[in-house]
Amino acid sequence: MKSVWILNHYAQEPGGPGGTRHYSLARSLAQHDWSATVIAASTEHGTGRERLMPGESRRLDTLDGVPFLWVRTSSYSGNGADRVRNMLSYTRSVLKAEHTRQLERPDAIVGSSVHPFAAWAGLRLARRYGVPFVFEVRDLWPQTLVDLGRLSERHPVTLGLRVLEHHLYKHAAQIVVLLPRASEYIEPLGIAAEKIVWVPNGIELDIFPSPQPKQAADAFTVMYFGAHGTANGLDNVLRAIGLVQASNAERLINLRIIGDGPLKPSLIQMARQMDLRNVSFENPVPKKQIAAVAADADAFIFNLIDAPVFKYGISSNKLFDFMACARPVIFACNADNNPVQTAGGGVTVPAGNPQALARAMMDLSRLSQTQQQKMGLANRKHVEENYGFDRLGAKFAGALEAALRGKV
């Protein structure tokens, strides 16, 4: 069996809140003659929880058969200088030879660009061991930061990141992208199309058992699971539910917002200022508990701001989770791809339009139970057929094999 190291700064172990892409891919890769070790930061992203004991610089755990190497990183909160230091401390820690000495020698190394420094560390390690480097592009750095307004096009950091991203693209044996149209961004940089493989996020169907129909109730419950960040645009959702509350709709509509993120305190304050009586903010739940909590939902909201970077498409863990729960989804997003529309499993409205989002919530609440169930089951069928990790693991293994062959 061949060995691959996957460098993902923010990788999450099973049972924790947040995405578990590489845990799930590692389990599937084992069926394709690949043993994967995930190398992640000791500081849990989003919560700040420290996984290592005082005095530990690293620890190797095996979780449901998947090795996780936790390396010591600095703590941080928010998106400022502390977070940059945390990124750099992960990069330095991964490159310390004593931290990876206990691992099986790799046949390939994957660097995942939750930030580009982690991917650069993957390239350095690949050169150290004389093995192929596979660049996994989760976000288009620095284009995402530019499109979200966090960096200007001519900022020195932007220019430096553009040099780094081109270096990573050029020296990768294979490039795995999560966004369906990312190749339209990468190929104009002089990168061969044959190096690019689309492997989106997916769903662990075994933690989403066959869904049960929602029982009719007086109130209609809409849920959102996930991050509370700039790109999520949850202020738009609050404005929409405010319009619903003011409309005196014939059926009570409740909104449950579950998760965490840097904007959560300001969103709670906004809801108070708007006197929103039908909104609750709840703590994140582990991945394996989502299905149980989601059983109380009548529908989900998937909401993003209108940003140019979404023209390359999206690959959202939470969207696939929503669809796997077999409930209708309101897709409030201008992304190029729309799995909900493809499935016939909900309603699509423009990003940043609270009036349209409010109407969508009220229109869904008026549908019969049979109509709602039909949409939900269409969503479930779509993710089962297209986004199961058994299928995605086979594609990822194919990219690793191509990297070994030196295919470009």
Q: How would you describe this structure to a colleague?
A:
InterPro entries: Glyco_trans_4-like_N (IPR028098), Glycosyltransferase_grp1 (IPR050194). Residues 19-202 form the Glycosyltransferase subfamily 4-like N-terminal domain. Pfam families: Glyco_trans_1_4 (PF13692), Glyco_trans_4_4 (PF13579). The structure is a single chain. By secondary structure, this protein is of the alpha/beta class. It has helices at residues 21-29, 81-95, 97-100, 116-129, 143-147, 156-171, 183-186, 234-246, 264-273, 290-294, 317-324, 339-343, 354-366, 369-386, 389-405, and strands spanning 2-7, 34-41, 58-63, 66-71, 108-112, 133-137, 174-177, 196-198, 220-225, 253-258, 279-282, 299-303, 329-332, 346-349. The two termini are 24 Å apart.
